[in-house]
Each structure stands twice: as structure tokens, then as C-alpha cells.
Amino acid sequence: MPRALRPLLALGAALLAAPAPAPAQQRVPRALGFQLGYSRASFVGLPAPGPGEVALEGRQSAFVGAWYRLRLAPWVAVQPELNFVIKGGQTPFTTAADTVARAALELGYLELPVLVRLAPPRRARGLRPVLFGGAGVGLRAGCSLRLESSTSVSAVECADAGLPVRRAEFTWVAGGGVTLYRSGFALGLEGRIAQGMRGLTAGSPVKNRIIAVLLVASL
């Protein structure tokens, strides 16, 4: 289990042990909140590596964002978000000096998805399971190719490295989790998957994908 997940899982256990809220706390039609957690980025659509080639690995990073939620019905809400996430991939290789190095493509995105959330009536102890899905646009805020070895680290911008990565990315998002309402605010633990709808470059089948586990809090 990745170490980054352990605090989130511990918090989830604490939520399950917390007392239920009063009924008056369960009728808030609007909410503001933030989310923070662990994400793993990878590429989909890559050709299978040939003999002697090394597969491109995923990369781990943080996921941070904020959202506004408007409840449209007792079990339906719409949620626009503003998130920042690092995507990309990495691969090890052997240098001419016979040492192992690593090449990593880092892509930073400001993402603006709009989600529809479905939440059935609350269960015992104030817990409410949720499912959500939607789509959005990601605006590339950074793109670099990093080369790391035991003796040096260097980075070059994608444009300088001849990588014409698109400025904008359209994604679909799906996920679910559980939320606990108490004392005028809410805490939740959620998982999501988000994937690009078109290639990183014109004519390319390679797309971004991230899987994230998030701590979600709202007021």
C-alpha cells in the first residue's frame, strides 16, 4: 500500500466512528469545500513495448482542488470544481556511462470539471454514500521533460524538447465515496478516475489518465 494512502485510510476509520449529526444539519442546499489527496498518473493508448524496450511507468503526485456544490434535489447535486494535478509518466534507461537514469514527462494542469453527484438518503451514523460523474477541460499550466541520475537533475520545456503537447485537454471523470455530516461541516473519503478524451498531441492515440484517492471537506 502506498504510504500516501495510510493517513487517508486512518481518517476514513475515524469518520466511521464519529457520532451522527442532528437532522437540522442535513438540509444545506449549497456548500463550499476543498479536496486533497494522492493521485497516480499514467498514459493510455501506448503501443506495447518491443523486445528490449522498457514500458513507460506511471508517476505519483498530490491532487488539490476546491469546489462549489448546489443541491438540485434531495439526492442530486451539481458540483463545478477547480483542481490542480500533475500528470505524465516516467521510464528508466541506461546512460552511455552504464549508469541508470530516469526520464520523466511532467504535465501540470488546472482542471475545471463539472460533476453530477448522486447521494441516496443518509444511512446510520450520518454516513452518506455518493456516486458522481461528469466532464471538464484541463488547461496545461506546465510541461517539462526531466532527466534524473545519481549525479545530476536537468529539465527542459516540452516546446524546447520538440514535444507539441496540446494546451487544453478534455476529460471525463467518474468516482464515488462516503461522506459524514456533523457539526455544520462534512468530511468525506472519495476515489475517482479521470481520463483525457483526445491525444496529447495532434494525431496521437496517447491520453492522460489519473486515479486519485481524496480527503474532501466542506463548510
Would you kindly provide a written description of the structure presented here, covering whatever features stand out?
With 219 residues, this protein is mainly beta. 5% of the residues lie in helices and 61% in strands. It contains one helix and nine strands; from the N terminus they run αβββββββββ. The chain has one helix at 6-17; strands spanning 30-44, 59-73, 76-94, 100-118, 127-148, 153-157, 168-182, 185-196, 207-218. Strands 1-2-3-4-5-7-8-9 form an eight-stranded antiparallel barrel. Strand 4 (100-118) and strand 5 (127-148) form a beta hairpin. The two termini are 31 Å apart. The model is unreliable at 20-26 (pLDDT under 50).
Number of helices: 1
Cα distance spanning the termini: 31 Å
Counted beta strands: 9
Q: In one word, what is the shape?
A: elongated
Structural class: mainly beta
Q: What would you report as the Rg, rounded to the nearest angstrom?
A: 20 Å
> Can you write the helix and strand succession as a string?
HEEEEEEEEE
